[in-house]
Amino acid sequence: MKMILPIFVLSLLFSSSYAAVQDFCVGDLSAPEGPAGYSCKKPAKVTVDDFVFSGLGAAGNTSNIIKAAVTPAFSAQFPGVNGLGVSVARLDLAPGGVVPMHTHPGGSEVLIVVQGSICAGFISSANAVYFKPLKKGDIMVFPQGLLHFQINAGGGPALAFVSFSSPSPGLQILDYALFGNNLPSELVEKTTFLDDAQVKKLKGVLGGTG
Ligand SMILES: *[C@@H]1O[C@H](CO)[C@@H](O)[C@H](O)[C@H]1NC(C)=O
């Protein structure tokens, strides 16, 4: 007993002085985001609303060229997920809608179809193709960093929710990366093997210049 008591007291001391395990690190959106996320909001200023995001109840606006809308609840919109390795988004696909080939450099994705049907797939770094039509209740996983797509495969609107293994997975759409910026057409032609007319046409459609 005599030996156990000091050890007990010692461990109590340690647990209070080393109680630095942080339950959360709600993002302080007033400072820039770094590779490790946002810095933490002072715990005294944290409220329950930092852990609740109400933006996924309404459909996103699909009146655009891809007839699709992604509504993110990433750390920039939902600071409670900062530092926790998770986030969510809503995906609306109008009839004919598509999320063109894209990647999330920062995290893997799980997609859950809740309405309609979606043809989804990804391409591995060995250029193997994995795609399948999904129906309500189906889920599909897209490994981190790989190019993938979602196409509305039904006649009506499709709805899916997606979760990520990162609070800030990022989103880069291949078509816009290639044709939606001011990289000179001549260089785009060299990197894509497309001809000048095709590149200029795609730049016109996707908002690129040069
Ligand atoms: C949806 O986006 C289009 C194109 O930007 C815009 O004209 C329209 O007003 C938006 N609709 C709603 C409901 O916000």
Count up the domains.
2
Per the CATH scheme, the topology name of the largest domain is: Jelly Rolls
**What is the count of helical runs?**
4
| CATH architecture identity of the largest domain | Sandwich
Please provide a written account of the structure.
The chain is an alpha+beta fold and 210 residues long. It has 2 domains: 43-170, Jelly Rolls (Sandwich); 177-206, no CATH class. It has helices spanning 4-17, 174-179, 185-192, 196-206, and strands at 68-73, 87-93, 98-103, 109-115, 118-123, 129-134, 139-142, 147-152, 158-164, 172-173. It has a 5-stranded antiparallel sheet with strand order 1-2-9-4-7, with no helix packed on it. A 5-stranded antiparallel sheet has the order 6-5-8-3-10. Helix 3 (185-192) crosses helix 4. The radius of gyration is 23 Å and the shape is globular. It starts with a helix and ends with a helix. 2-acetamido-2-deoxy-beta-D-glucopyranose (NAG) is lined by residues 61, 63.
Write the layout of secondary structure elements.
Layout: H1 4-17, E1 68-73, E2 87-93, E3 98-103, E4 109-115, E5 118-123, E6 129-134, E7 139-142, E8 147-152, E9 158-164, E10 172-173, H2 174-179, H3 185-192, H4 196-206
Antiparallel strand pairs: 1-2, 2-9, 3-8, 3-10, 4-7, 4-9, 5-6, 5-8
Helix pairs in contact: 3-4
